[in-house]
């Protein structure tokens, strides 16, 4: 059912200070702000000044920093506002386990897994922007959402596009889903050219404004690799039904192909607020102040097959999908360690995929996860092995 416009909807934003979180707050403002939404909690990490400003602006009940050392600074920034300040892992889980009807899960990395799972178990609708929930713990997370009784609504532009193009009564007729990829800043670069790039060069995405982790993931196409694994769990399709096509303009966000040859696509200007707004108002739609497509000005829409030699992350995703078990968790953890090593100047850009592949091969024997502890154990072991390889 669509949210009742006469009642305030209780929401929580996990990761409010990141790019997705700030866009979510802008969407909330556009759709009525405090007249329509009651913000129970905002969470962030080290940027407590922004977190406090956001909490005061939207009238949040609570603001939580995951960094316990920043508690004093957050409490001081909120002094006199009446907004509760809290810090640490326990406080983060408490905020996620509140009475929110809708939770934006936008904490980047494995750190977002436990709080998002807590929100799912409480029965909230989960607007999912955290990739690790499905990449690392897909089967367990989907079961938790179902058991909690909430809905899982993807926020990634590509998965949102598929979600919008899927006809509920025709899921049996889905032949393939096609994830589009911009190709990032190195779409036409050779491996030799990519070998010497720095983090500052890799973060410069041609179409989207995103945080450092997501931007570099787009440049290496690890983001798309993770989206392939997410798609399997989100849409209950086989690995061989998942395709990737490079679409530099980022106008078609993804497509669904049906057995009769029809292909339904979702189009829009590159703006995450469209997907966020759809997740917030689903199954309805509300007006948003975002750019509209002017088809007369679209000179062309280009498509090309991805080059898995230059961007081996896509090949690694297919390996993880084929092997199953905890390979998604292993791949994700190894890539995170390699990412930090790249940003720190300790390894080159191309080495991120080499390290992820080596760790995946070494830990290919891990069985499927029976509980979340298995996921965390695999994540920890993959990080240990990756760190050892980096030295």
UniProtKB/TrEMBL annotation:
Pathway assignment: Isoprenoid biosynthesis; isopentenyl diphosphate biosynthesis via DXP pathway; isopentenyl diphosphate from 1-deoxy-D-xylulose 5-phosphate: step 1/6
Binding site for NADPH: 17-20, 47, 130, 132, 211
Superkingdom: Bacteria
Residue stretches making up the 1-deoxy-D-xylulose 5-phosphate reductoisomerase N-terminal domain: 11-138
Annotated residues for binding of 1-deoxy-D-xylulose 5-phosphate: 131, 157-158, 182, 205, 218, 223-224, 227
Metal-binding found in the keyword field: yes
Keywords: Isoprene biosynthesis, Magnesium, Manganese, Metal-binding, NADP, Oxidoreductase
Domain DXP reductoisomerase C-terminal: 267-384
Domain (1-deoxy-D-xylulose 5-phosphate reductoisomerase C-terminal) ranges: 152-235
Catalytic activity annotation: 2-C-methyl-D-erythritol 4-phosphate + NADP(+) = 1-deoxy-D-xylulose 5-phosphate + NADPH + H(+)
Cofactors (names): Mg(2+); Mn(2+)
Known EC number: 1.1.1.267
Gene3D superfamilies cross-referenced by the UniProt entry: 1.10.1740.10, NAD(P)-binding Rossmann-like Domain (3.40.50.720)
Signal peptide residue numbers: none
Family: Belongs to the DXR family.
The protein's role, per its UniProt record: Catalyzes the NADPH-dependent rearrangement and reduction of 1-deoxy-D-xylulose-5-phosphate (DXP) to 2-C-methyl-D-erythritol 4-phosphate (MEP).
Protein name per its UniProtKB record: 1-deoxy-D-xylulose 5-phosphate reductoisomerase
Native source species: Shinella yambaruensis
